[in-house]
Structures are given as C-alpha cells and as structure tokens.
Design goal:
The complex is a heterodimer.
Chain A lengths: L1 H45 L9 E6 L6 E6 L3 E6 L21 E2 L2 E2 L9 E5 L2 E11 L4 E6 L4 E7 L6 E3 L9 E6 L3 E2 L10 H4 E10 L5 E10 L2 E7 L7 E7 L8 H4 L5 E8 H9 L4 E13 L4 E13 L8 E7 L2 E6 L5 E6 L5 E5 H9 L3 E5 L2 E4 L1 H4 E5 L6 E6 L4 E6 L4 E6 L5 E6 L4 E5 L12 E6 L16 E6 L6 E7 L7 E5 L29 E5 L2 E9 L2 E3 L2 E6 L3 E8 L8 E5 L7 E3 L4 E6 L5 E6 L12 E7 L8 E3 L7
Parallel strand pairs in A: 14-19, 37-40, 39-45
Antiparallel strand pairs in A: 1-2, 1-35, 2-3, 4-5, 6-7, 7-8, 8-9, 9-18, 10-11, 11-13, 12-13, 13-14, 15-16, 16-17, 17-20, 18-19, 21-22, 22-23, 23-26, 24-25, 27-28, 28-29, 29-30, 31-32, 32-33, 33-34, 36-37, 37-38, 39-46, 40-43, 41-42, 41-44, 44-45
Chain B lengths: L1 H4 L7 E7 L2 E9 L4 E3 L4 H10 L13 H22 L2 H31 L20 E5 L2 E7 L1 H29 L7 H9 L1
Antiparallel strand pairs in B: 1-2, 1-5, 2-3, 4-5
Helix pairs in contact in B: 3-4, 3-6, 4-5
Classes of the chains: A mainly beta, B alpha+beta.
C-alpha cells in the first residue's frame, strides 16, 4: 500500500509537469505552422516545375575543391561541377592523357588548387555568357572556362606571385583579367632570410590580356611594395581604365600577422591606371625579366591540352611610370573592393572597421589633379583620405567583407562577424534593411551585381559555417548558400542549399545569355585528335616498342575492337577511345580493371586516352561506365595479357573471330 | 519544270520519330538523291535505334533508286521544257500522266523499302517482339514500340505535286485556248508554257 500512495504522490507532481510540457509543445507546433505559411510563400518562389528551366545560372567557386559548381536559380539545383584546378576522376580530368597538360605548372603537375573568384566575361560592362574566369590561389593561376562546353579551355600560371587572391576581376570589355598577389614574395624569387621581408619581398599585380577568341597572355606586371593584395575590381563607365586592389599588411610584417598586420589605422586601395600602363608599354618603359610560367590551352578540335613554358614578362615600375598607381587610404584592412554600377563609387570593405568607407572616383581624379598627396610610399603617391572619400555608411555592422549592387541604386554588404547582409542606399549612405545569414557570410552574389547592369531580383549569400542548419554529417559539415528575394523593399529569405567545397565568390547570369549557345556534341568530322578513329573501319591496335596504341570506337552499344590479344606484361597500353555518337547526351565511359588512374568519359565526337600498364598475366575486362542504352550492360570487352616473352601475336576484333 | 527541279533542293518526304528521351524528335528526310536529317547525325541515330530490333542499316549507297531517280527527274524536266516550247495540249496531258505514273511507282517503291526495313529483321536482333512490325507508316502517324512515327511529304513532294497539277492545268487551259484559237486563229503563241514556269 505504501508503494501505491507513493505512486499517487508522484502522479501529483508529474501530471502538472506533463501539462506544461504539452503546452510548450503545442506552442512550438503553432510556431511551426506560422513558419509553414511563410515557407509556403517562399516555396512557390523557388519552385521550378519538373521539366521547366531555372531563370539564372549561378557559377560558384569550389574553394578548396578547386572546381566550379553550376547551380540553377531560384531552385538551387546543382547542374554540374566543372573540373578546373583539381583532378576529377568522374570525368577523367587530369587523369586522361589529354587533360594532364592543363594542370602543368613551372612546379610540374599540380593536381589541386584553391579556387576563389569566378568572374564572367563582359561586353560594355554587361555579362555576355562567353567565358568564366577563376583564380587558383595556392599555385598562382587563372583559368578560363568556355561556356559553350562548360569545360576548362585555358589555364595560365602567374609568375612572381604567391597566393593569387585578388583575381581574376575583369575590365568592362574583358580587355584584361587581373591577378594580384596575396603574399609578398622575394623578387626575384630566391633564398633569403624571411626576416628581410620589408627589404627583399615585393607584391606584383598582373594584367592578363584576353583576346577576342578568349586566349590569355600576360600583358604586363606592376611591381609594388610587399603588401598583401586582397581583392580587386575594375572600374566601369566613367572609371573604366582603372583597376582597384585592396591591401592589408601595409605594415609589411612576416610573422603573427593577425596582430602585426592589424596595427595601421588605414591600409590602402591601390588604384592602377591600366590605360596609362598600355601607353608606357607602348613607349617601351618596361623591364623584360626572366620568368618561368606555364600556359596551358585546350582545343575542342584535337580534344587535347598543350602546355607551353613561357620565359619572360614585362614589368612596370611605378617610380618610373608617374600616374600609373595611386594609393587611397582606407580604414582597417579592407577586404573586398566593389565599384558601383555607375563607376563613381568605390566601396572599401574595411573588415576591422566600424564604418564602411566609400571613395568617390570624381574626387579621386580631382585629388590627383590637385596633387593632394599626404605622403609617398615606394615612389607611389598616397592621396589624402579626406580628399577621396565620397561617403561613409555609419556603423552598419561588424566585419564588412563584400558589397554587390542591384539595379535601383542600392548596395548590399556582407558582415562576417555579425553574420548578416545590410542593404544601404548609394549616395545617401543610409541603412535601409538588414537580414541575418546562417552563418558567417563571406561573399554575396547578385546576378550582374558587380557589372554595369545588375540583373537584380535575387541575392545569394555564401556562408562559411552551417552548424545546426542541416542534418549533421559527422565533424565536416557542408558550406551553404542562401537565396534571398531583393525585388521588394525588404530582403526576404527564400531558400537554403548546400554547396560543393567552400564557395567564395559566385557569378550569376540570366539563362538566355548561355542556354542557346550550349554545345550538344562535337561534330565527328571536325575531330583532329592524332589518335582518332573516324569509324569502326579505323579501329586497330598498333604496337610501337613497349607501347600499344588501341584505336577504339564506341557506339551504342559496343566497343570496336572488343577483344584484344597480344598485350604483354610491362607494356603501356594507350586506349584512344573515339565516341562515334552524334546525338545529344550520349557519352560513353571506359574503365579497365587495374587501371591506376580513372575512367574516361568521352563526349560524342570526342577522342580521349587512358593509359593502362598491366602488371600480371591474365584476361582483363573493360566496360562502358555511363549508362548509354538498353544494351549498356552488354557494352564490354577483354584484353588478354601474356608474359613478356610469350609468342602471342597482336590480334583484335569485334563480333567475329579475332584477326591479326 | 522549276517545281520539279526543287526536288534537288528540298526533301520529298519526312519521317519523324518522337519519344520522351528525344524531346526534339528524330527527323529523317528523303531527297530525290540522298537521305539525311535535320542534323548531320540523324541517319546514324536512326540506325542505332533500329539495330536493337534487328532492322537493316539504312545506307544511302544500298538504295539504287537514289541514283537513277535524279536522272528520271532531269529527263522529265527536259520533257517539260520541250512541252512548253512545242506547246501542244496533248503533250501537257501526256507529261502529267507520266508524272502521275512515276509518282505512284515511286510511292509504291517507297512502301516496298519500308516493308523490307520493317519486316526483314535480323534473326540475331537483341530485342525480338513476336508478330511486331517496325514498318513506318506510308502516310500518317503510327505507334512503333516507344515511338510515335510520323510520315508525310515534305516541300519537294509538294512541289512535285504542284508540277503535276500545273501540267494538267496547262493541258486544260491549252485545250480551252485551242478551242478559242479555232475561232480566232491569229491569237498569239504560247502564254501557257511561260505561265507554267513563272507560276512555279
């Protein structure tokens, strides 16, 4: 009985607690349902019905993945990952013989990089959908992606540079893309004491000329003090002809930078007059210096990359070229530098500053004219802060990093520390709205938001940290994008979606500027690959010493030849696979047992080569890896590998007794 | 005559295959002297589809009609010119009749080829469907497995039809004019032949 009454006593206590718990849970359900109504509204804005297309392409940098991912907006659907600086076994990029030269550098084969800032080509200041450029930060490089094929078409290495971060921001007609070094490095690169930083180290800004066909070459470099050149943007409209680079570590320190490089109240924005630079180059006022850097070019005709080692660059010294560079003092380690669509305002996002500083291009020109210089650094005039500043956005948030613009004269700035985006008015500098980001936003992107003609409507926040935002996936969590509607007065969150690698910057463009130009397949008659097979009649196996060339074709659903004998242990077999298909979306894959590299994924009309070095005797299967037809599973074959000294003749065939 | 010569410019017939995974359709064109499609790979793509069910490869070289039909059309063109120069009603009529006969023969020949491709299947076909025929329709629309096949004349075909129509029209007008001429023998020569050419 005692137990019974004890139980009753317990019930008296437990029931009210349960009641409170029930109330809380009811309440939270109520909250959820309110959220549900709002979510429903946002859902309809991002819903792209099955079979329908997104309105925008978004190109997001892969950060430490080294690649570019392509998303559709507003749905946030991942469309493609384009391999650029890193190996991609899925597509055979960097593994097949044709794309290996694309990753060649003066340091040899470098199969990874850290890709930060995609930048679309522009015509008259508007994105034109021809190419996408992106920087490789670690081993300084700039890549160009062809937007008819969504493949990496060219990679150029940047000499005299270390950490290619302020890159590859374009000029308004894609005359140049730029590459500013983030790390000071000895110039010329050599064995010196690290402590001799201020004396021996330099910072180089590189201008890469882009030809009408997209071809890149290093036009000239500008030699500057060893500051850390962080980000860049070129002028537009009235400020076309200038490119602006932010700097930090103007203290020129080489250890414990988080403290040592945060001492100066103001660092600089370097304004480089590239039209002036062109004049100096024309007048021959450059030094030609030896420099080893790789220039890698991929051709859609022979479906192969070639790597050429270059041996010199033209360098301009600001002390000998007056009017080439000016420094604009800008508070506290400015990160992004963003030029508004009119070209008048240059936003210096001082990441350790309480305020956001905006310079005026008109005032800058006037200050230069009036020689309103406060000092000179390494022969470069430093303009007076008060003479160049155009406005200040007062205490908008903590840790401003990047600013983009809409078509209505508004600016949107990310704040890393306070994890938010703040909307403000260009010209009046008043804060109009703010929205939280989950969490720690870095870059943001508005389609065309760094061009003369923003396409508006959507804004994407690129967040570094997701914490509890998604289902957990162990210690490593995804980075993420957040999509906002910016068509109204208030910023409205529409969608969260995870991204590939770490998205730094991104670019967006209305789909119609790319969609109609997208290639469906490569015309086989234009294939100039030296090891192509233009039809099954060309399929053959040729021995050259220990190298065996297999000229193989694919068509639904067989390889020709599919039986090969006479390969010996110690041979290097090169499978040159030509995909004879001439239809949209019919790639064939190729994989062979024991290959030490990857598969091939061969587009219609293309030829790709996989090297295979069999280690043991036996008969090894190969097969098609990309489901191609109802008979895909039958798309397979065998290679017989015999002992080095075996008297097995080279034979091959398809569908009949194999012949010599 | 010009109507007839357009046969060398425009396809006579058009067969389109439609299926979900071919959103643009696969469109094959038949010219008087060649086979092709709305893009260079079409014939190959049709053959790839056909090989699953064991149909023979469609290869232009294996169809002799594509070689001698152009000659016949050129001869008929020459005859049309001759007819317009000589300008006799019986010539227009005769020319029209020959053309009709040729068209009927051509369409019958087309049917035979279709029948051959659709029924003469390889015994080693990967996919065998008992009793199924893969013969595309001669004229009209038909379901073949997962495809909808549409077969209709194209520009060249229409122009050939127009040529026949004009021949009979010329015959009819000429006959009528000849009657008028019997009344007024001094009326002027051959407006009909000219009109045949200019209309076309």
């Amino acid at each position: 009985m005692k137990i019974h009454s004890g139980f009753r006593q317990l019930l008296y206590w437990v029931l009210p607690i349960l009641g409170i718990f029930a109330m809380i849970s009811c309440n939270s359900e109520k909250n959820d349902s309110t959220a549900g109504v709002l979510a429903g509204d946002a859902a309809s804005q991002v819903y792209v019905a099955p079979g329908k297309y997104d309105e925008f392409y978004a190109f997001m940098s892969g950060g430490f993945s080294g690649q570019v991912s392509v998303y559709g907006l507003p749905s946030g659907r991942l469309l493609k990952v384009i391999p650029v600086f890193s190996l991609d076994a899925e597509k055979g990029y960097g593994f097949n013989e044709e794309t290996k030269p694309m990753l060649n550098t003066s340091h040899g084969f470098v199969p990874w990089d850290d890709a930060h800032h995609p930048e679309l080509s522009q015509t008259n200041g508007s994105t034109d959908g021809r190419w996408l450029f992106i920087n490789g930060n670690n081993t300084p490089r700039v890549a160009r992606i062809d937007l008819t094929t969504f493949e990496t078409a060219e990679i150029i290495e940047i000499p005299n540079s270390g950490g290619n971060h302020s890159s590859p921001f374009t000029t308004e007609n894609t005359e140049y893309v730029v590459a500013g070094t983030r790390f000071g490095v000895p110039y010329p690169q050599r064995d010196v004491e690290i402590n001799s930083y201020a004396e021996n180290f330099k910072g180089m800004l590189t201008f890469i000329k882009v030809a009408d066909d997209g071809g890149m070459e290093i036009a000239f470099q500008v030699l500057l003090p060893a500051f850390d050149y962080d980000l860049a943007h070129s002028g537009k409209g009235k400020s076309n002809g200038w490119t602006f680079f932010t700097t930090y570590n103007t203290e020129q320190k080489n250890t414990l930078l988080e403290v040592a490089a945060s001492q100066n109240d103001k660092d600089f924005i370097a304004a480089v007059n590239w039209k002036k630079a062109e004049e100096y180059i024309q007048q021959g006022k450059f030094k030609e210096i030896p420099a080893r850097y790789a220039h890698n070019l991929y051709s859609d005709k022979n479906h192969s990359g070639t790597s050429t080692m270059m041996d010199k660059v033209k360098v301009l010294l600001p002390s000998e070229c007056p009017g080439l560079v000016y420094f604009l003092p800008t508070p506290k380690s400015p990160h992004g530098v963003d030029v508004d669509p009119t070209g008048e305002y240059i936003v210096g996002n001082g990441k350790l500053s309480a305020d956001l500083t905006v310079h005026s291009f008109t005032r800058m020109l006037k200050a230069i004219e009036n020689q309103a210089f406060e000092s000179e650094v390494a022969g470069i005039p430093v303009l007076k802060f008060e003479e160049v500043v155009g406005g200040v956005v007062k205490e908008p948030g903590l840790g401003p990093l990047h600013t983009e613009f809409d078509a209505n004269g508004n600016a949107y700035t990310t704040f890393f520390i306070s994890s938010e985006i703040v909307k403000w008015k260009v010209g009046t500098w008043e804060v109009l709205d703010r929205t939280p980001c989950y969490y720690s936003v870095g870059h943001l992107m508005i389609p065309g938001g760094d061009s003369k003609n923003p396409q508006g409507k959507y804004m994407v926040a690129l967040n570094k940290i997701t914490k509890d935002r998604y289902l957990p996936t162990g210690p490593e969590l995804c980075h993420a994008a957040q999509l906002y509607d910016i068509s109204g007065d208030k910023i409205k969150l529409l969608l969260d979606f995870p991204t590939v690698g770490e998205p730094h910057y991104a670019q967006g463009i209305s789909a119609d500027r790319i969609q109609s130009k997208s290639k469906k397949f490569f015309p086989i008659e234009e294939n100039e690959h030296p090891y192509r097979a233009m039809g099954e009649k060309d399929a053959k196996v040729v021995r050259e010493g220990n190298t065996v060339h297999v000229y193989m074709t694919t068509i639904r659903s067989h390889f020709a030849p599919d039986n090969i004998e006479g390969v010996k242990v110690g041979d290097k077999v090169l499978f040159h696979i030509t995909n004879l298909e001439q239809d949209w979306d019919v790639p064939h894959g190729f994989a062979v047992l024991g290959a030490n590299n990857a598969e091939l994924l061969v587009m219609p009309g293309q030829t790709e080569t996989l090297a295979w070095e069999p280690k043991t005797e036996g008969v090894f299967p190969f097969y098609c890896t990309d489901f191609c037809s109802a008979l895909h599973q039958e798309m397979q074959g065998y290679v017989r590998v015999s002992a080095r000294d075996a008297a097995v003749a080279l034979k091959w065939g398809l569908g009949e007794e194999i012949t010599q | 005559m010009i109507s007839l010569l357009t046969l060398f410019v425009f396809p006579i017939w058009r067969i389109t295959l439609i299926a979900p995974q071919y959103p643009d359709g696969v469109t094959m064109f038949i010219w008087i002297n060649k086979l092709g499609g709305d893009s260079p790979g079409v014939l190959q793509n049709v053959n790839i589809l056909n090989h699953y069910v064991g149909m023979k490869f469609i290869v232009a070289d294996s169809i002799p009609e594509l070689k001698y039909f152009p000659t016949i059309i050129l001869i008929m063109g020459g005859l049309a010119l001759l007819a317009s120069l000589i300008n006799r009603s019986w010539m227009y009529f005769g020319w029209g009749v020959i053309m009709v006969a040729l068209a009927v023969a051509g369409i019958y020949d087309f049917y035979l080829w279709e029948y051959d491709y659709g029924h003469n299947l390889s015994p080693e076909a990967p996919i065998k469907i008992p009793g199924a025929s893969f013969q595309p329709p001669l004229f009209g629309t038909k379901h073949i497995l997962n495809f909808i096949a549409k077969s209709y004349p194209h520009l060249g075909g229409y122009f050939a039809g127009l040529a026949i129509f004009l021949a009979f029209a010329a015959w009819w007008i000429k006959t009528k004019m000849d009657k008028n001429e019997n009344i007024d023998r001094n009326s002027i020569g051959n407006p009909v032949g000219n009109s045949l050419q200019t209309q076309a």
